[in-house]
Task: structure prediction
Amino acid sequence: MKFLSHKKSSHPSRKKLFTLIELLVVIAIIGTITSISFVYFGNVRQKSRDTKRVTDIKLIQKTLEDYYRNEGSYPAALIPGQNLVGSSSNIVYMQIPENPSPKNDGPCSDSDYIYERKDGGYLINFCVSEATSQLSAGEKCATPQGIKNEGCTINACQGISSVSYGGQQYDTVAIGSQCWFRENLNIGTMVSGITQTDNSILEKYCYNDNPSNCQNYGGLYQWAETVQYLNGVSSTTDWNPAPSGNVQGVCPTDWHIPTNDEWLTLTTYLTGNGYPFVGAALKASPTALPVPWDGNDNLNFSIVPGGFRYPIGSANTFLYLSENAYFWSSSTNGPISAYYLYFFTGEPESFNGGFQRGLGMAVRCLKN
Result:
């Protein structure tokens, strides 16, 4: 009798495993696909925002014509996020759309749609990041006659010539698409020889602990005080979480601490509009000050040389009064420093960099 036998294979069945090289190749391919996907979807979202911007403006234009027929004139102001209400009829025409975030796509600045009633018509300045609906990338101007493929010449302050805040009046100045305080901020209680850490009150330094210097040059603020300790930030810790919009800080309602990019928007506007020496154009005229200073004040920004305060308790903590000017931004530059803009006597340029947040510097407020 024969018995059937089952021979074991000399090469038993087993799952084939990836080699190390094959794994690395697969990981690299996945990484490449993921990167391409992020770029692709990022571009799709940006194009979607541009499409919405053009759609928003066309809707606003149509609504403004309805408003004009019913009310007899165009509205004095349009405020993004708020209702447009008839001046005589009290009809609610629409809620003014807001520029979709992030607003600073491509060449665009971090600003909303900017409206101005002018010469019986209106101007609306907006921006698209790339070619959209037969418009090239960059700032555009909507008027009753249509959309121009260029930015508007518009008064960004929209009739706000001054702001009353904390018992003091601040003049405003429009430069490009931005509206600024013309004077350094001077708000808060003067403190001497200590760190600004009492969060129950708004604190400031006055140069050499002399209140008259705050009147002449504005207060000096540590960075954490400037942004009012938002989201737990301090001179030695970062945002938690980082803010997604404007940081009001020590500024009044509807105004904010400029970001570093917004300071650079200002200086870039000047260099692109016939002012190659930004420092000279922004600094106050020497005839307007009791100290030597070398500005032309071409745009009425009137920077004054208020110096700064070191974050130490020694007697010699204040430096460079009547020589230099320093301004905080809300943008961090590492865990213990933040970006700032500064100006030197004898130097026609402006400078941008990062410094430790414990210094006391001046503040200018920018309109939302």
